[in-house]
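Researcher: We're reviewing a set of sequences before deciding which ones to prioritize for further study. For each one, I'd like a predicted 3D structure that I can look through quickly. This is DUF29 domain-containing protein. If possible, include the structure in token form so it fits the rest of the review sheet.
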Amino acid sequence: MPDDLYHTDILAWSRAQADRLRRVAAGERVNDVDWAHVIEEVEDLGKSQLAGVESFLVMAILHALKVTAWPEEHPAVQHWEAEIANFLTQAQTRFEPGMRQHIDGAVLYRRALRQLRKTPMRGTPPLSLPESLTFDPALVLGEEFGTTDLLDLIRAA
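Model: Here's the predicted structure for DUF29 domain-containing protein, in token form for your review sheet.
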């Protein structure tokens, strides 16, 4: 297998490495496992999955902030509410319990608030929003948690 397969065809590389690792796990001596890249990819996989969940949560919070800042008078409120539901569902689907200890709700809220402040909105100025919000990610990532729950959490802050 070419040494540059990792850089030219990651899918073929990953399949070949998985096959080799299965052989190692079965007790076979395999000398051509690309250990450096396998280790890097395993590490990146965890980071990537966590980043995905966090990204969906930030987007849900961002849209909830829009609804909170421009309640009902803005023509996009229903769209924003639908987006909150979608982003929460995406985060909840990808969430694994072990991620909980690595997700900081306050940091995600600050990211969303910063992003909102960079978003140009025309018309009515926004209502006041809480500067900070701390929440347990397990609560927000529970299957029963939805759009109204996130809006209530922000409004109560």
